[in-house]
Write a structure and sequence with these properties.
Blueprint lengths: L7 H4 L30 E8 L14 E5 L2 E2 L2 E9 L5 E3 L2 H7 L3 E6 L6 H17 L6 E6 L2 E2 L8 H9 L8 H5 L11 H8 L3 H14 L1 H6 L3 H37 L6 E7 L8 H13 L2 E7 L29 H10 L3 E2 L5 H13 E7 L10 E8 L5 E3 L3 E3 L14
């Protein structure tokens, strides 16, 4: 895999930070809010909403409980970060703003899992996001074709836009692989294709009999039942083989980004642009990548490039152009769901307006609480540890990463030039 962020920080085009330090309401009891900065701490960014969906401000450490593998942990760090529309950042601690001042966005194009119309849609949305929504102190990168555009992160919007324009359609993409499922002889979906590729002969027989009963002429033209069953097996095996290759490329890209961003302290945001990918053989790997990203402070959001699904649309279907796009043959949402839910992000689906989709993510990254604790189990053994953040205040909903891989963080590199 290509290195992502080796020595990137030294080459960033950075401008002086504009930091507006404004104190929050003093904590109950008159004490100072807690702040510690240490790689021994596990930091969890928490998005807290009330019943009306508004961000809940004014909360304190004593309003939360945090559990690791079911065991309560002692909260040692707590503060709120707010990024203002003008590009400044507000926090209860100047030290915290040192490494939280610059939002870090990496736009990851999953070209092999974006049909041409989807790719055009997400490119337009990404360009609008860079032009209109990135602040003067925000740092960005465009991950395309297996690597970061120009090999670095930057504040230069021109370079970021050039990275977006450099994205090209993949020669093979997942929607093209799924299209033959609707042609004779039909395969109901990719899970059925996986079962067939693994030797489920009874399913082949059932699909062959059904195809020849419903389409007798096509069955005869293709040589009868036995030949139709052979075609079903060939179609399923070809799909699974090709889908695995595409999914492996996607996993490598995600892993490269997660490892690279773990060198930068604070919250990092990855916007994963995809239609989903084949997961049957790589669920464990995707879960491990999400756990690694969570440990490194990276939150993954996913935007489904298909836009509005299951309704009439001026753009093409997953498998045909005669109807609204659907996911009838496609179970690829599982991968993005794992990545987003396990790192504290969310999926954006059924939206044609990509500018709005990016806007939802920007708003979500603008205000959050940081909860830090030193695990009671201090051994970094590489195992997955479950995290559960709960609010003691009635009526509040908390979204945070679900766990992390207990790995030692690499040496941290500050985006503000310090070490």
């Amino acid at each position: 895999m290509r290195p992502l962020l080796c020595a990137i920080v030294a080459s960033l085009l950075l401008v002086p930070a504009r930091l507006a330090m404004q104190g929050q309401n003093p904590p109950r009891g008159g004490g100072q809010p807690m702040f510690r900065s240490s790689t021994a701490l596990v930091e969890v960014d928490a998005i807290v909403h009330d019943r009306e969906g508004r961000f809940a401000t004014g909360l304190r450490a004593e309003d939360f409980e945090i559990f690791e593998d079911g065991k309560p942990q002692n909260i040692q760090q707590f503060y709120m970060v707010t990024h203002e529309p003008g590009g400044s950042v507000t926090s209860e601690h100047a030290d915290a703003t040192d490494y939280r001042a610059r939002r870090v966005f990496v736009i990851l194009f999953d070209e092999a899992h974006l049909a041409n119309d989807s790719l055009m849609r997400v490119k337009e949305g990404a360009a609008a996001f860079i032009r209109d929504r990135m602040g003067p102190d925000d740092v960005g990168g465009v991950f395309v074709n297996g690597g970061m555009h120009k090999g670095r992160l930057t504040t230069d919007k021109g370079q970021l836009l050039a990275g977006v324009h450099a994205v090209k359609p993949a020669f093979d993409n997942r929607q093209a692989l799924l299209a033959p499922f609707e042609l004779f002889p039909r395969i109901p979906g990719e899970r059925d294709a996986t079962r067939i590729a693994e030797g489920a002969r009874e399913l082949v027989d059932a699909l062959g009999i059904k195809a020849c009963r419903e389409y007798r002429a096509e069955c005869e033209l293709n040589g009868g039942l036995n030949q139709v069953e052979n075609l079903i097996e060939q179609k399923a095996r070809l799909y699974v083989r090709q889908a695995r290759i595409l999914a492996d490329r996607t996993a490598q890209s995600l892993q490269t980004v997660a490892r690279g961003l773990s060198r930068i302290p604070g919250r990092k945001t990855v916007v994963f642009l995809s239609e989903g990918f084949y997961l049957e053989d790589s669920r464990g790997l995707i879960e491990a990548i999400a756990a690694q990203a969570a440990r490194g402070g990276t939150t993954i959001y996913s935007i489904d490039g298909r836009g509005l699904i299951g309704a009439p649309s001026p753009t093409s279907s997953v498998v045909t152009t005669e109807r609204g796009r659907s996911t009838a043959f496609d179970t690829g949402d599982d991968g993005p769901n794992i990545l987003t839910a396990n790192t504290g992000g969310f999926m954006v689906r059924n939206i044609d307006d990509m500018s709005r989709a990016f806007g939802m993510i920007v708003r979500d990254t603008s205000t959050y609480y940081v909860i830090g604790y030193q695990p009671a189990n201090s051994t970094m053994d590489g195992k997955y540890r479950k995290i559960d953040v709960k609010s003691k205040v009635a009526g509040l909903r908390v979204r945070a990463r679900k766990g992390y891989a207990a790995l030692a963080l690499p040496p941290q590199e500050s985006l503000l030039g310090g070490r």
